[in-house]
Protein: Mitochondrial import inner membrane translocase subunit
Amino acid sequence: MYNDAEKQQIQKIIEQKQMRDFLKFYTNLIERCFNDCINDFTSKALTSKEETCIGRCTDKFLKHNERVGQRFGELNQQLMQQQQQAQQSQPQQSSGRWF
Structure:
C-alpha cells in the first residue's frame, strides 16, 4: 500500500504526535499539581504538606490517565467488534463471474 519512504514519513509523524501528547500531558500534570498544592513562596523548599499534596496529586493524575486509556481501549475494541459484526451480516456481493 505504501512504499518504504512513505511508511517512514508516517512513522515520523506518529512519533511527533506522541511526543506532543506526552509533553501536553506532562505540562498539565505540573500545572495542575502546582496550582493545587503550592501556596507558600517564602522558602525555596517545599513544606511537608506541599510534598504530600504533590505526591497525592501526581498519583491521582497518573491513575486517572491510566484508567482513561484503559477505557478508551475497551471502547475501541467494542467498536471494532461491532464493525466486524456489521460487515459479516451484510450480504456478500457477487462479482457477476461464474467459475
About this structure: Helices lie at 4-37, 48-89. The mean pLDDT is 88. The two ends are 28 Å apart (CA to CA).
